[in-house]
Amino acid sequence: MKITPLYHASTLIEAGGKAIYLDPAKPAKFSGHPKADLILIGLDEPNAVPMYDVYAQIAYALKASDVQTVMIGGRVVMRDRKLLTVDEQAAMAKAREYKKTVAASLGME
Question: Distances from the Cα of 13 to the Cαs of 46, 64, 65, in angstroms?
């Protein structure tokens, strides 16, 4: 079996669906109008050019930092790489507190 960029990109998408308990083999059931999940990717970085095959770019070249805008369930949660639904400073402070607790539990004080 030849693994093409399209196959690899499709596998990544399918694996993501399985990670959140979706079965890509079964059609999703929606009531009313489903809301969109969408990502917008910046293509002006060195790792994104030249683009010969969009699937190859997604599977092999693009990085998380190339994601500029994210919409989940029709709601924009990140725009221009800035989180809109999370207080980043508070989240970082909480993470630093958890670090102390984890380090203490591992004897790494």
Answer: 24, 14, 18
Smallest CA-to-CA distance from 86 within 106, 63, 100, 70 is with: 70
Domain covering 5-105 in this structure, CATH number: 2.30.40.10
- How do the pLDDT tens digits run along the chain, 109 residues long? 677 777 777 776 666 655 555 555 666 565 666 666 888 999 888 988 888 888 888 888 899 899 999 998 888 999 999 999 999 899 999 999 999 999 999 998 7
Letter for the amino acid at 88?
E
Q: Where along the chain do its domains lie?
A: 5-105
Contact 61, 43 (CB under 8 A): no
Is-contact 47 63, C-beta < 8 A? Answer: yes
